[in-house]
Amino acid sequence: GVKTALITTKGFRDVLEIARGNRPDLFNFNFRKPKPFVDRYLRLELDERTTYKGAVQKPVDLSPLSQQLDYLKAEGVEAIAISFLHAYLNSENEQAVVTEINKLWPEVSVLASSEISREWREYERTNTTVLSAYVHPIAQKYIESLESKLAGEGFTEPPYMMQSNGGIATVQSAKDNPISMVESGPASGIFAAAYLGNMIGEKNLVVLDIGGTTAKCALIEDGDVKVTTEYYIEKDAKSPGYPIQTPVSEIVEIGNGGGSIAWIDTGGKLHVGPQSAGAMPGPAAYGRGGTKPTTTDSNLILGRIDKDCFVGGEVVPDMAAVEQAFAPIMAGLGVSLIEAARGVVRIANANMTNALRLVSTNKGYDPRDFALIAFGGGGAMHAVALAEELKIPKVIVPVNSSVFSAWGMLLTDLRRDYLQTRPLLVSPENAHLFADEFQSLKDKARADYDGDGVDGTAEIIFEYLADLRYVGQEHTVKITLPLDPAGDIDLAQTIGQFHEAYEKRYSYRLDGAVQLVNFHLIARIEVPKPPLAKKETTGRALSDVILHERAVDFDQHGIHQTTVYDGLALEPGMGFDGPAIIQEPSATLVISPGHRASVDGYGNYIIQLNFTEKGA
């Protein structure tokens, strides 16, 4: 990002510094809050005040602004974030400052919080605005460079950008609010999982995306991808991270991927991640100078990855470097190379199992009622072992699983999310206020799409959601609002659905009054989607697609002579029992003994788990 300044309400200069009191480890006496993205000397104040009801009590005093901008110029500031108290209800004072800055310093990037978030909580809203401003100039350059290169290649259609809410946006929308792309890559994979699940009749899915550095987990219930505005970047066991108040697909991300490094702490305990070898130098087996043992190296040692087809056959693994990388682990734990590799994979799997529990059991869902869909370069490698641990009965590894998220980008619709904080009691007396608020959001959606140059005849599909809570509580539960036959919000059903959602999340319900806190409107315009082609069959025999057999270590299942199948040659209708490995140039699917694998009509791999098998 770039050097960023903050202009805020007089008396609120230190909102970023004060932050919140939440700490991941209450007993860590050496805890330090994450450093704000704007240092104190670049946080300035203007005298203004908007009340909590949205009335401008004191118009902003712009007289100090010229001098403040001269100061920021001298400090080399490239972006300015503006965040005033209660601007989510009334942006008048913020917009006055934006207008004045554009007159006095048109070259600087400036973002107002009212353009980024219309939700309350001044720290979260301010931090989100600061982060968006922090990357704004760079994101603009990247996107403009992309547009220029596409035009140079003769591409005449308007490009779109993937967003973290699972939809696509125009490039102008992405440039205006780049923080909306913060988790766009994982979001496309999650929505692709929902799309594929709907095609094959699996609407309840636990989603697992394993790459080189991280593993991402999500849950899809009845085909619905959950979206939240309570998201944190750089959050881990030691840091509360930085909140981002923008719609993000509800995911849990941990530092566990193919390149995650195994290490021993001062107490002699083995860990995996979050440090990663990255793409360069990469795992020790790459032979590019990597000296740390990784999950990929462990899978090579255990025979799960084919040494003769490493990285699609493009790399001859440096096994001497692998053994040398594992030497400290072996010496520190007093174990053999095989035992060390098993330990690394076990811990990596345990870390990912815990992440999967965070999106399922910790939120009131039983994993046994779901199928696990796994993709990314490492998803197939670990999926069956994780499903065994959670007693998930079915694993789905989609066709082209290593690029599944990229395919997901082709399946998304134009989407805009509108959230507005306006606390109201859920009661018949307020029904007209609900209708008025949603109508206002719908009008804004239509105006924004018109401004994007979207075809005026395109149908906008609206979805109505809300964040609700019991009166007197602090946090909320999001539900989709039910509509009556006339298309109005059914308040009685709304209250009933909230009670059910609350009980599922917290295991109890109350009899108190229910309050709507945030209105949430989704405005979608459907775009044509490429069909998923059926895979052709030639009638070849299963024996024709066997590559070879080799010894593979399946941990608690033992070491087995394992049949290795050519994934590119497998055809719909083929099926076989584990132990087995399905091998593709960009993915390896490990199937433990006792489980049944088959290929569906699209080329997806379906593994039915058999929990009567010993050790499963």
Ordered list of secondary-structure elements with their pairings:
Elements: E1 4-9, H1 15-18, E2 43-46, E3 49-50, E4 56-58, H2 65-74, E5 79-83, H3 92-104, E6 109-112, H4 113-116, H5 122-152, E7 160-162, E8 168-170, H6 171-176, H7 184-200, E9 205-210, E10 215-221, E11 224-225, E12 227-228, E13 231-233, E14 242-244, E15 248-249, E16 252-254, E17 260-264, E18 270-276, H8 295-301, H9 319-333, H10 337-359, E19 371-375, H11 379-390, E20 394-397, H12 404-409, E21 414-425, H13 431-451, E22 461-470, E23 477-480, H14 491-506, E24 514-525, E25 546-553, E26 559-566, E27 575-577, E28 580-584, E29 587-591, E30 596-599, E31 605-608
Helix pairs in contact: 8-10, 9-10, 10-11
Can you offer a commentary on this structure?
- The chain is an alpha+beta fold.
- Among the domains are: 4-138, no CATH class; 414-525, no CATH class; 542-608, no CATH class.
- Helix 8 (295-301) packs across helix 10.
- The radius of gyration is 26 Å and the shape is globular.
- It starts with a strand and ends in an 8-residue tail after the last strand.
- The model has no long low-confidence stretch (mean pLDDT 92).
Which descriptors apply to this entry?
nine-stranded mixed sheet, 30% helix, four-stranded parallel sheet, single chain, 616 residues, alpha+beta, 31 strands
